[in-house]
Design a protein that fits this description.
about 10% strand; alpha/beta; about 230 residues
Length: about 230
């Protein structure tokens, strides 16, 4: 990114760059602030557009207040959280100075997160969906309903699933390393799903993640002790 900006291939103001603080940097005052500064130094950037707390683990209140300081000091333009369930998010919002701009959560047609969406809207928080294609689980790319709806609009099942999330108000971040797939994921703005189609897709909700169980005590313990080299 630094080279592309320096070479004039892109302007910094045309990029929206997000990073996260991991749990290892959320244990005591100053940890998260230092991690943001370290990330800036490693990236060669002057500021981030958004910094998130990766998990509602560690001392996340202290970590969030570090993010508030980072925002006030100009290290980032916005701050937010990731994987914060409704009750945790409400408790955070009721006790901090800056309401999170974003809550990034797993959200797709098999885990719709309606209550999460309701709570975020009540605080003016932007809902952002990681894994909006469910990491390919549940046969999402060949799902009969998604495929049939897609055929009507000349779209794939994946494009229908992404459009459904967008129409609910989610920002989506589908992951792909293939150029054609990336182009396909972007090509969802020339059609709109009907109310009945939206309901058909939402009815697929299984009410839980098929990717990660944040309520598993062993997982929480392990993530609290998982560290990455900077």
């Amino acid at each position: 990114m630094k080279r592309a900006i320096a070479d004039g291939l892109v302007k910094r103001e045309d990029l929206f760059i997000t990073t996260k603080a991991w749990v290892q940097d959320m244990h005591k005052a100053g940890d998260t602030y230092a991690s943001v500064k370290r990330s800036l130094a490693l990236s060669g950037l002057d500021y981030f557009d958004l910094v998130l707390l990766h998990q509602a683990m560690g001392d996340y209140f202290t970590a969030y207040r570090d993010l508030e300081k980072a925002a006030k000091d100009g290290l980032t333009k916005a701050i937010g959280v990731s994987n914060y369930f409704p009750s945790i998010l409400v408790n955070l919002c009721e006790n901090v100075e800056i309401i999170p701009a974003v809550n990034q959560i797993e959200a797709h047609s098999f885990f719709t997160r309606e209550e999460d969406l309701r709570v975020m809207k009540s605080y003016g928080i932007v809902p952002q969906a990681w894994s909006p294609l469910a990491e390919g689980n549940y046969g999402i790319f060949t799902d009969p309903d998604l495929t049939a709806i897609g055929k009507k609009y000349g779209k794939t099942a994946a494009q229908v699933a992404l459009r459904w999330n967008v129409q609910r108000g989610f920002s989506i971040i589908p992951k792909s390393t293939h150029e054609e797939r990336i182009k396909e994921n972007l090509d969802i703005w020339d059609f709109a799903l009907t109310e009945d189609e939206m309901k058909t897709i939402s009815a697929k909700d299984k009410g839980k993640s098929g990717i990660i169980n944040h309520f598993d005590p062993d997982l929480v313990k392990n993530l609290n002790h998982l560290s990455f080299e900077h």
